[in-house]
Design goal:
Number of domains: 2
Order of helices and strands: EEHHEHHHHH
Number of strands: 3
Largest sheet: 3 strands, antiparallel
Oligomer: single chain
Number of helices: 7
Strand order of the largest sheet: 1-2-3
Strand content: 5-15%
Radius of gyration: 38 Å
């Protein structure tokens, strides 16, 4: 029959540089002393509230000097405790940083374009469209579709069209114009 040996919390004495013998405990004993979980001890270590004398490696637990860990833990507990509001603020900051990172990556991959680039592209497109609209009466005359005597009237109608389009300030204006032209065509 095989028996499993449970690793127990150990407490040992080591001499400190000043000659005093500090009490040294492992993570499990420290958690039991503080009345918290092993995970909380890990969080305290990550936050540099408590510093191990020797970090655990290869199954060997970290060890802590009680003469340093207890006062540090008490200072932490008597300071303004991390309230839910502070944790939430930290979480919001972390989410915002993650969102900024996602946006930066999307921009670098070309999946996101800056507003300025969109506006410039739209302006270039409209300038080209306006030039094509202004040239339309002349091209219709050259193609023999429009009588040369009516070229000026066609140009005037297209100028009115451009003025009307220039008055649009919202998408709703463009949609109203599209519905009105659809009604006129019917």
């Amino acid at each position: 029959m095989t028996t499993t040996r449970r690793r127990s919390a150990t407490t040992t004495r080591r001499r400190s540089p000043n000659g005093a013998a500090p009490l040294v405990v492992d993570r499990r004993a420290l958690a039991r002393l503080f009345g918290c979980s092993l995970r909380h001890v890990t969080e305290l270590e990550a936050e540099r509230v408590i510093v191990p004398l020797r970090r655990g490696r290869g199954g060997r637990p970290s060890t802590y000097a009680l003469d340093a860990a207890v006062p540090a833990y008490l200072r932490r507990m008597t300071e303004a405790p991390t309230s839910g509001a502070e944790r939430e603020a930290r979480a919001r900051r972390d989410r915002a940083q993650a969102r900024l990172t996602e946006l930066r990556i999307a921009k670098e991959e070309g999946a996101l374009v800056s507003r300025e680039d969109v506006v410039l592209a739209g302006q270039a497109l409209l300038k080209g469209l306006q030039a094509q609209i202004r040239a339309l009466p002349r091209r219709l005359v050259q193609a023999g579709v429009l009588d040369p005597a009516r070229e000026a009237a066609a140009a005037a109608l297209l100028r009115e069209l451009q003025i009307e389009i220039a008055r649009w300030t919202t998408l709703a204006d463009a949609e109203r114009a599209a519905r009105a032209s659809g009604d006129a065509a019917a």
